[in-house]
């Protein structure tokens, strides 16, 4: 495996803490979401993960579109990352990716969405570890 890029982010304080990337691009105060007893208006791990996954996923969808000769430059994905309680002391993530490809029928869009999910590095990282639904919309 050839390493092409390494992101470095320092985190302190957990869900009520701070993150800062080595290059200074990210410098955020973190808070639990309101639904978990935190404050509105702050970043949290699930928001950041959803955004990162969505960006990466659209890159994979671009490769699928190129392979299939379909323009996906106007495609979008809404990524829903949920923090779930399994028991009083055990938590897991789950996710849904709702993929919209303008001008492509739902059946073909679903096939393309599934193919992108197979190739996306974030999808690969979660495969078999969390429940994920990929749905063309």
TrEMBL record:
<dbReference type="InterPro" id="IPR019953">
    <property type="entry name" value="OHR"/>
</dbReference>
<dbReference type="InterPro" id="IPR015946">
    <property type="entry name" value="KH_dom-like_a/b"/>
</dbReference>
<dbReference type="InterPro" id="IPR036102">
    <property type="entry name" value="OsmC/Ohrsf"/>
</dbReference>
<comment type="similarity">
    <text>Belongs to the OsmC/Ohr family.</text>
</comment>
<dbReference type="Pfam" id="PF02566">
    <property type="entry name" value="OsmC"/>
</dbReference>
<protein>
    <submittedName>
        <fullName>Ohr family peroxiredoxin</fullName>
    </submittedName>
</protein>
<dbReference type="InterPro" id="IPR003718">
    <property type="entry name" value="OsmC/Ohr_fam"/>
</dbReference>
């Amino acid at each position: 495996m050839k390493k092409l890029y390494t992101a470095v982010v320092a985190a302190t304080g957990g869900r009520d803490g701070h993150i800062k990337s080595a290059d200074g691009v990210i410098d955020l105060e973190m808070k639990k979401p309101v639904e978990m007893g935190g404050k509105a208006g702050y970043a949290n791990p699930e928001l950041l993960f959803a955004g990162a996954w969505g960006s990466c996923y659209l890159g994979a969808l671009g490769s699928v579109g190129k392979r299939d000769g379909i323009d996906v430059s106007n495609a979008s994905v809404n990524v829903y990352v949920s923090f779930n309680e399994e028991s009083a002391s055990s938590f897991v993530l789950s996710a849904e990716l709702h993929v919209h490809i303008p001008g492509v029928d739902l059946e073909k869009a679903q096939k393309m969405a599934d193919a992108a999910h197979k190739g996306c590095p974030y999808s690969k990282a979660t495969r078999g570890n969390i429940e994920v639904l990929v749905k063309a919309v």
